Amino acid sequence: MITEENQEPLASLTVRGFRGAARSRTPAPGGGSASALLASMGAGLGAMVGWMTYGKRKFEAQDPVMRQLIPPLDVAMRELIR
Known about the structure:
68% helix
């Protein structure tokens, strides 16, 4: 875990740290890093909605759909941070 963190210096920043770095006079983080962060957040929110829907009696008809959607959203959330 420590090795991975060292190889991903932007991913180890706090939200405030990333925001501060994005406004500085450095090439990274740039638009690609900021876009990946936002896409990762979107995928995470999508997975959250899926988990909040899955297994609820009120939405049980949607369980098969949620079972298909949650895993790729979770993978995308993790991969986009890299």
